[in-house]
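I am still getting used to backbone structure tokens and would like to learn alongside you. Label the sequence line and the structure token line clearly, so we can match residues to local backbone shapes. Would you write everything just below, so we can both look at the same thing?
***
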Amino acid sequence: MDLRERIAAATKEAMKSRDAARLSTLRLIGAGIKDREIAARGEPGNEGADGLREEDLVALLSKMVKQRQESARAFEEGGRIELAEREQAEITVIQEFLPRQLDDAEVAAALDRVIADLGASSVRDMGRVMGELRARHAGQMDFGAVGALVKSRLMG
């Protein structure tokens, strides 16, 4: 079952179980996918293309998680704990549809593999390394945090 089918099935299940909070988040995901599909139709070379690829959906969901993390942080700083908790609940629902996140040891191993495969040896290779990591591990790691790790590995 592809990602789009899993989201549709989860939406139906949330409707049946009358889980309003979960249903709301799933509908936001569906609306985000539809918006992205409409935007993609207008891009050059995508005329007539039906739907988004799986990796596009993963990127969209990752972006939604990141937006909610930033919102939750802002709400916590502003003392709006109930709103921060709602953002965290939405993150939990969205993450169900993302690939499993790699732990620190797996991130380090993946980084070492990419550096070795590309023969990267200096900070000048950082863009190539990051691009390859994104291609191989989309949605599986926080690339903002990994960037500093890549830089330290290539410098030292």
